[in-house]
Every structure is written in structure tokens, then in C-alpha cells.
Amino acid sequence: MDPSALQSPELQNFLNQEKERAMINEMVGKLTSACWDKCITGTPGSKFSSSESNCLTNCAQRYMEMSLMIVKRFQNMQ
């Protein structure tokens, strides 16, 4: 492979997009695990109870808000 091809803008753009996808997938996995452990205390049935549903919604919102806040802080530090 031509070493200059490794520095091409198209390849760099592709790699950046793949890194972003990986980060999003990792965040979704962490969010799912954290909120599940916090909100689902018993064996789930065919539907979540209203309290479980509310807890999952609130947990996911807080998780996303904190993640965005952390990203913004790191961006401001650079």
C-alpha cells in the first residue's frame, strides 16, 4: 500500500466517522447497563411498570446530559 494513501483526507474522514460510531455504540452500551441496573430491580415481565419506565427515561436523559457536559468541557480545554 502506498504510504501517502494513509494520509488521504478521505481515509482520515472515514476513520473519524468510524471512531464516532464506536464511541456512540460504547455510550449506548454503558447507558443501557447503568440504567438497567438502577431501574430494573426484579425480573422484568412483558412490559415495564410505569415506575421502571419513568426511571429508565430519567436515567437516560441524565446520562446523555452529563455525557454532553463532559464532552463540552474537554473541548473547551483544548
UniProtKB/TrEMBL annotation:
Function field: Mitochondrial intermembrane chaperone that participates in the import and insertion of some multi-pass transmembrane proteins into the mitochondrial inner membrane. Also required for the transfer of beta-barrel precursors from the TOM complex to the sorting and assembly machinery (SAM complex) of the outer membrane. Acts as a chaperone-like protein that protects the hydrophobic precursors from aggregation and guide them through the mitochondrial intermembrane space.
Tim10-like domain location: 13-76
Subunit structure: Heterohexamer.
Subcellular location per the Swiss-Prot or TrEMBL entry: Mitochondrion inner membrane
One matching Pfam family: zf-Tim10_DDP
Family to which this protein belongs: Belongs to the small Tim family.
InterPro entries named in the record: Tim10-like (IPR004217), Tim10-like_dom_sf (IPR035427)
Broad class of the protein's primary localization: mitochondrion
Taxonomic classification: Eukaryota, Viridiplantae, Streptophyta, Embryophyta, Tracheophyta
Domain writeup: The twin CX3C motif contains 4 conserved Cys residues that form 2 disulfide bonds in the mitochondrial intermembrane space.
Cell membrane keyword on record: no
UniProtKB keywords: Chaperone, Disulfide bond, Membrane, Mitochondrion, Mitochondrion inner membrane, Protein transport, Translocation, Transport
Taxonomy, superkingdom: Eukaryota
Membrane topology: Peripheral membrane protein
Protein name as it appears in the record: Mitochondrial import inner membrane translocase subunit
